[in-house]
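Running co-folding for beta-D-galactofuranose.
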Amino acid sequence: MNRQWALVLLMLACLLLTACSSVGNAPSTAEEPHLIVVGFSQVGAESDWRNANTRSMQTALSADNGFRLILDDAQQKQEKQITAIRNFINQGVDYIVLAPTTERGWETVLSEAKAAGIPVIIVDRMIEIKDSDLFTCWIGSDFRKEGAAAVAWMEQRFQDQPLRIVHLQGNIGSTAQIGRTDSLDAGLMAHPQWQLVFRGSGDFTQAKGQELVEALIRENTAFDLIFSENDNMAYGAIDALKKAGLTPGEDVTILSFDASSTALHMILDGEISFDAECNPLHGPRVRAIIEQLEAGRTPPKYTFVEEAVFEREGLTEAIIEARGY
Ligand code: GZL
């Protein structure tokens, strides 16, 4: 009889130990919410536009909205973006968002993302690849349209009077640079009295924009208009003009892109004469795309965002305040 009782007691002890050990692993009553993990490869922090774009993504893809955002700043280097995407793949993120530095060189790493079954959303600039199945969708700006709006303003403002133009380009090979440059080239072809006296890349940065214009002033280059492919290079150009005792908006006409709040205030102050908006607020747009995909719906392959143009007439402090960046 004792052996039987001993066996019963042993079985009871085992059951008790098993029950105790499982208590520690019992799911917590407050389950951790499932977050959608998004790896975001960002160009860098080179401009007001870029910083507004990053803030927009961080605000939209927040934990409160059901996301965990992993942000990587590539410091404007494509090779750093490629490394970041490979890290996202290794981490098994749910989505990859890429704001590409340049248009070319993405096939290999996007093929790796596709092989891993991770959807890729391209924002802002475009990529040039043969197989468009390597990304799920793209959302950004029509840069040629922005450039054409700038050239139309020049035509309306200067008609056929001679014009000596300094052209500050963005990162060479970026869609923003390609589109804005192509539009200026079309304007130069159509207006023989417009003369390109300088063309060079300021990498979309204020420091480089200032450096280029300071060198032109040092070399006594004569020019009437600066066609700056973003606001931060325009800020640098304005600093260079002021250092040389020149008055931006009077001695030299400044035309720019992005329409960030600082630049729009410079329009109110008469320093910048025209600014074509390039809207950076892609966060809510990317969130909506991911939520569509999560719901099994198919977002459009390409989405161009609506953008405006700004000059002194009609611009108010209230309009600037309402724009959000
Ligand atoms: C445009 C974006 C450009 C901005 C610059 O969509 O790619 O890059 O015009 C930014 O300010 O650096």
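Result summary
The chain has two domains: 36-140+280-294, 143-278+312-322.
The first helix runs from residue 2 to 24.
Job closed.
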